[in-house]
Design a protein that fits this description.
It contains four helices and five strands. The protein has one domain: Beta Polymerase, domain 2 (2-Layer Sandwich), CATH 3.30.460. It is globular and about 35 Å long. With about 120 residues, the protein is α+β, with helices and mostly antiparallel strands. The protein is about 35% helix and about 25% strand. A five-stranded mixed beta sheet has the order 1-2-5-4-3. A hairpin with a 3-residue loop joins strand 4 and strand 5. Interacts with ribosomal protein uL14 (rplN). Belongs to the Iojap/RsfS family. GO terms for molecular function: ribosomal large subunit binding.
Amino acid sequence: MTATDRALELARAAAAAADDKQATDIVAFDVSDQLVITDAFVLCSGANPPQMSAIRDAVEEKLHGLGAKPIRREGEREGRWVLLDYADIVVHIQHVEERAFYALERLWSDCPTIELGLPQ
């Protein structure tokens, strides 16, 4: 099983929105073979809570424009790890320190990455 076309569209849109707000280390994994609850994870980092809020807002705005609404949001108050669950995809916006500590890339390294088409 692979991620649906819709999941790929949303993952790429979320990544582009995060990139517009200077998020770093943007990567996406096709987790559809490992999880039944979602098709893709999008991971990105922000340097501070205001930047992370800007990334969150940009992702939500971009995906709303594509007709997607989050079914769950977590971590907004703490400002160190924001999770946006869109069912088809889950977006993780992490402070750089949390990103290094939790190392989600290591946990999902056996899953295929999704080509995001972002400028290098």
